[in-house]
Structures are given as structure tokens and as C-alpha cells.
Amino acid sequence: MSEKEYDNTNRGAMFVNSYKEEGDNRPDFTGNVDVEGVEYKLAGWKRTSEKKGTRFISLSVEVKEDKPEKAPF
């Protein structure tokens, strides 16, 4: 591996979802993570536990699928 290449294995990041609107169900955060060479999409929602009132982020993870190529016509 050259000095300029970066190994993202077992790393990821989430960012504030700029498409989130007040009251909608879209995630508050979105991002990607690489787990042992497999890419996953992440989604996170701000939540508060009912029992103790503790704030946390609820996550959803799914395999990142390659987008199908568009038909030429």
C-alpha cells in the first residue's frame, strides 16, 4: 500500500442529515462503515429512553448495494 492510500477497513463515519425536515421520519444522521471489507449504510435517529430519560442514538445498518446502471435510453 502506498503512502497516499488509506485503509478504511473497520472504520466509518456519520454526519448530520441535511435532508431532515421537522417531523419527518428520515434519520437525523447518515453515513457508511466498512466491516472487514464489506460496505454498510448507516442511519441514526436521536431518541430518549422512556424509563430513565437517557438520550441515545438508535441505529439501522444495511449492506450498501451498488446502484444499477441507467439504461442508455
Descriptive overview:
It is a single chain. With 73 residues, the chain is mainly β. The protein has one domain. It has no helices and four strands. The chain has strands at residues 12-16, 29-35, 38-48, 55-63. Strands 1-2-3-4 form a four-stranded antiparallel beta sheet, with no helix packed on it. A hairpin with a 2-residue loop joins strand 2 and strand 3. It is extended and about 50 Å long.
* Major sheet summary line: 4 strands, antiparallel
Span between termini: 40 Å
| Average pLDDT number | 89
Helix coverage percent? under 10%
Order of helices and strands: EEEE
Hey, roughly how much beta strand do the residues contain?
A: 35-45%
Spans of at least 5 consecutive residues whose pLDDT stays below 50 are: none
- State the helix count: 0
Rg, Cα atoms, Å: 17 Å
What is the total tally of β strands? 4
**Strand order, largest beta sheet:** 1-2-3-4
Number of domains: 1
What would you say about this model in short?
The chain has 73 residues and is mainly beta. It has strands spanning 12-16, 29-35, 38-48, 55-63.
List keywords for this structure.
mainly beta; 4-stranded antiparallel β-sheet; 73 residues
Write the SSE topology.
Elements lengths: L11 E5 L12 E7 L2 E11 L6 E9 L10
Antiparallel strand pairs: 1-2, 2-3, 3-4
